[in-house]
Design a protein that fits this description.
Largest sheet: 7 strands, mixed
Shape: elongated
Strand order of the largest sheet: 3-4-2-1-5-6-7
Helix content: 40-55%
CATH architecture of the largest domain: 3-Layer(aba) Sandwich
Order of helices and strands: HHHHHHEHEEEHEHEHEHEHEHEHEHHEHE
Number of strands: 13
Structural class: alpha/beta
Number of domains: 3
Oligomer: single chain
Strand content: 5-15%
CATH class of the largest domain: Alpha Beta
CATH topology of the largest domain: Rossmann fold
Number of helices: 17
Radius of gyration: 34 Å
CATH superfamily of the largest domain: NAD(P)-binding Rossmann-like Domain
Amino acid sequence: MNLSYIRRRLRKENPRWVVLIFDLGIVLFCYIFSNFIVNSFKGSLDIFDMMWKAPIVLMIYLSCFVIMQTYKGIVRQTGLSDAVKIFKTSWLAFMILALLSAIVRVFFGEDQNIFGFLRLSYGVLLMHTFFTMVSLVASRVFYRTIYESLFLRNRKMKQVLIFGASRPGLVAFSLLKEDQRTKYQVIAFVEDKASRVGKRIAGLPIIDISSLTKDFIRGNDISDVIIAVENDDPERLAKITDAFQQLKVELKIMPPAHLLLNSGIKREIRPLKVEDLLGRKNIKLNNPAITAETENKVILITGAAGSIGGELSRQIAKQRFKKLVLLDQAESPLYDLQQSLNLNNSDKIKCVVGDVRDLVFLDHFFNQYNFDIVFHAAAYKHVPLMEDNPYEAIWTNVVGFKNVADLSLKYNVKKFVMISTDKAINPTNVMGATKRAAEIYVSSCYGKGNTSFVITRF
């Protein structure tokens, strides 16, 4: 048979009646096989009697399959819950058949025809139940294995660690195994509790967080660490994140169960956010002064896709502004920000890809929108990188800033807010020096026009 045909068939969802008929075929085969095993040893194998009783076995199993709905699961995603349901269904059918056989034995004589039709061997029933359970589960696992080998073997492989050798860790382990987009391979579980270190869970070792080294991370090609703990103690989470950040791995988290119940969000593994370390709910700004400041204003945020600019954008997007323009030279992060903002104001929010170092572009840009407020967050901020790339730091943090400040004066922007850094205080590195230079330039702009200049340090 052509492999491409098999691929097409496996991609399609099999009709439920096909699964049901296949399961009944397994039931019939196992009944015949069980009769052969049990009665061959007795020397009393009666094929006619066996086929005469088979319909009652099939009818009982059919009823149990319909009641328990074992045939409605997606076969290629068979899991433990499906296996448990099959076990329950098989034992339910066994008890019904055994009870029916016992009733016939007690209330009907051997000379009555109904006795021969319904008298079932307990030994055959017991063996049949065992073979049926194993075969039904094995058939689903085999189907899933074939499907994964054909479609999922070329998925990108990611080596990960799970912090939390408890129930949340096991849930995270299951979610990773079920992910259809990326194939994860969990190397080990990590713990900070000495009582769990050295043991095994889900067949994987539990290792001490203090024993992790950069050599271990590189040697096992580990890219991600998933934090899965029920106790969301902020102090503990902070220690965990500090330990892993030194190892240069991406941190993700699975929210604890009580947060899921309270907030209604679904259980999923997502990137770790600063809010996860707070140990409290986010503070939502509801300041009348902020509302009055932004109401009916045309607002520009440069560097809108960055960490500070992004949060500014999200907070201001909740206000009653006239127009919010988000400027950044990074296309993908700006697109992600656009998708995350309130769609109710989508007609008032404009995302623009552009560079603050391009004076010609900026001049046309300011002339087009007539801004009331400018938040300048566009800057390079990573100290080590800027030490190696001083030209880029000066070109963006000084020249780019000057372009925006000068145009704010030229086009009579009412307020200009510069996002600076504490590293501008007695700077000892390139990044801090460029931000300090920009602050000095702001000071020189005071009184030159109608623009109010404000500096805030983070």
